C-alpha cells in the first residue's frame, strides 16, 4: 500500500460516518461493472445509481445532485466518455468526477483531467480498494465544497444587505439634519424652479406645441439638427433632451451618446412622431425603455412632464445621498469592494 493509500485508509472510518447516504452516479455500459460498483460502494453506505449511457447520465444529474460521478471513458465507444465528463462538469460543477479506464495510458490520464476529472483509475482488481477510498475522499470534498459555497453565498447576501441598510440609515440622517436646519429634504435635493428641455427635431411642429402649452416650470429650446444640439449642450445646461431618431446630419445614437458624455445629469429621450408608429423611449445605460407608445399627440408628453420632473428630482436626491455617503465613508467602501470581489472570485472558482 502506498503512503497516499495509507493516509486515505486512516481517514476513511470517520469520513464514512459523515458521508452516509451521499449520492454516487456510475456511468458504464458494462452491467457487471455497474453491479460491482453498487455492491462495493453500497457497503460504504453510499447511494449508488448506475446508468449505461451518457444520455441517461445527463438526465440523472438534471434530476438530482451527485457528490461523485464515475465515468468509463470507453462508454459508449472508446474515449467517448471524455465528452461525457466535459458535459457533466458543465451541468454539475461541484460534483467530483472520477474517470475509469481498462488500460494504462498517460494520454488518457491527461485528457481525463483536462476534461474535468479529478483522477483516472484503472479498472483492475488491485485498484478496487483504492477506488473505494478515492470515491469516499471525493465525496467529502464535494460536500465540503458545497457547504463552503453555500456559506459564501450567504455572506455575500448579508454583506450587500448591510450596505443597503447602512446607506439607508445615512439617508435618514441626512434628511433629519435638513429638517433640523429648517430645510425641506425633497427641495434640498435639487433646487430647480425651471427645467430646461432641449428638443432636437428637424421640424418645428412639436416644439411649437410644447411652447404654446406653456407647462409651468419648463422651458423648451429647439435644435434643428444634431450638430446644433451638440453646440447648445456645450454652451448650456439642460435637464432633459428629446432627440428625434429622424435627424439626418448625424446619427441619433452619436448625438445621444455625446449628450450623455457631456452632461451625465441630463435625462435623454429618443422619439419618433407624433404620428403613426410614434414612440418616446427613455435612453438607459445599455438599452431604451418605452415611455410613451404609441406616441400620437404632443399632449401625451405634456401630460407626463410633472412625472418626469418628479423622477429627475428623485434621481438628483439619490445622487446627493450617494455622493455624501462616498465622501463620509470612502475607506469603508474601498474595503467593501475589495471583500466583495474576493467573495465573488471564491464563488466563481468554486463553480469552476
The value of Rg in angstroms is 33 Å
How far is the N terminus from the C terminus? 33 Å
pLDDT < 50 stretches: 1-18
Shape category? elongated
Helix and strand composition category = alpha/beta
Q: Structurally, how many domains make up the residues?
A: 2
- Tally of strands: 11
Helix content: 55-70%
Helix tally equals: 13
Oligomer: single chain
Summarize this entry quickly:
The protein has 352 residues and is α/β, with parallel strands linked by helices. It contains 13 helices and eleven strands.
What does this structure look like?
With 352 residues, the chain is of the alpha/beta class. It is 56% helix and 16% strand. It has two domains: 3-149, Rossmann fold (3-Layer(aba) Sandwich); 188-327, Rossmann fold, CATH 3.40.50.2300. It is built from 13 helices and eleven strands. The strands form two sheets. It has a six-stranded mixed sheet with strand order 7-6-8-9-10-11, sandwiched between helices. A five-stranded parallel sheet has the order 2-1-3-4-5, sandwiched between helices. Strand 1, helix 2 (31-42) and strand 2 form a beta-alpha-beta unit. Helix 6 packs antiparallel against helix 13. The protein is elongated. The two termini are 33 Å apart.
Per-chain topology:
Elements: H1 3-18, E1 23-27, H2 31-42, E2 47-51, H3 54-63, E3 68-72, H4 81-91, E4 96-101, H5 106-115, E5 119-122, H6 128-180, H7 185-189, E6 195-200, H8 205-213, E7 218-223, H9 226-235, E8 240-244, H10 252-262, E9 267-272, E10 279-283, E11 288-292, H11 299-302, H12 305-328, H13 330-351
Parallel strand pairs: 1-2, 1-3, 3-4, 4-5, 6-7, 6-8, 8-9
Antiparallel strand pairs: 9-10, 10-11
Amino acid at each position: 500500500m502506498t503512503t497516499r493509500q495509507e493516509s486515505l485508509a486512516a481517514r476513511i472510518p470517520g469520513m464514512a460516518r459523515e458521508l452516509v447516504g451521499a449520492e454516487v452516479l456510475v456511468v458504464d455500459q458494462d452491467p457487471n461493472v455497474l453491479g460491482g460498483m453498487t455492491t462495493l460502494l453500497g457497503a460504504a453506505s453510499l447511494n449508488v445509481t448506475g446508468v449505461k449511457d451518457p444520455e441517461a447520465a445527463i438526465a440523472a444529474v438534471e434530476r438530482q445532485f451527485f457528490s461523485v460521478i464515475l465515468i468509463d471513458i470507453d462508454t459508449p465507444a472508446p474515449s467517448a466518455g471524455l465528452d461525457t465528463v466535459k458535459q457533466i462538469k458543465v451541468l454539475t460543477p461541484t460534483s467530483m468526477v472520477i474517470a475509469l479506464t481498462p488500460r494504462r495510458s498517460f494520454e488518457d490520464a491527461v485528457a481525463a483531467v483536462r476534461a474535468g476529472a479529478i483522477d483516472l483509475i484503472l479498472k483492475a482488481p488491485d485498484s478496487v480498494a483504492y477506488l473505494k477510498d478515492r470515491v469516499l475522499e471525493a465525496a467529502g470534498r464535494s460536500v465540503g465544497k458545497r457547504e463552503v459555497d453555500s456559506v459564501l453565498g450567504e455572506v455575500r447576501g448579508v454583506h450587500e444587505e448591510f450596505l443597503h441598510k447602512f446607506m439607508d440609515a445615512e439617508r435618514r440622517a441626512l434628511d433629519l439634519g435638513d429638517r433640523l436646519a429648517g430645510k425641506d429634504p425633497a427641495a434640498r435635493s435639487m433646487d430647480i424652479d425651471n427645467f430646461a428641455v432641449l428638443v432636437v427635431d428637424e421640424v418645428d411642429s412639436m416644439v411649437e406645441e410644447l411652447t404654446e402649452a406653456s407647462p409651468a416650470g419648463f422651458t423648451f429650446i429647439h435644435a434643428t439638427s444634431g450638430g446644433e444640439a451638440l453646440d447648445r449642450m456645450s454652451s448650456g445646461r439642460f435637464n432633459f433632451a428629446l432627440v428625434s431618431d429622424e435627424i439626418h446630419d448625424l446619427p441619433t445614437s452619436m448625438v445621444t451618446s455625446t449628450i450623455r458624455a457631456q452632461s451625465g445629469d441630463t435625462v435623454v429621450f429618443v422619439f419618433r412622431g407624433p404620428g403613426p408608429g410614434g414612440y418616446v423611449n427613455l435612453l438607459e445605460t445599455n438599452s431604451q425603455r418605452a415611455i410613451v407608445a404609441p406616441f400620437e399627440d404632443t399632449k401625451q408628453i405634456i401630460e407626463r412632464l410633472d412625472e418626469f420632473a418628479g423622477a429627475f428630482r428623485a434621481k438628483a436626491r439619490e445622487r446627493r445621498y450617494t455622493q455624501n455617503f462616498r465622501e463620509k465613508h470612502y475607506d469603508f467602501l474601498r474595503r467593501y469592494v475589495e471583500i466583495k470581489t474576493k467573495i465573488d472570485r471564491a464563488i466563481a472558482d468554486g463553480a469552476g
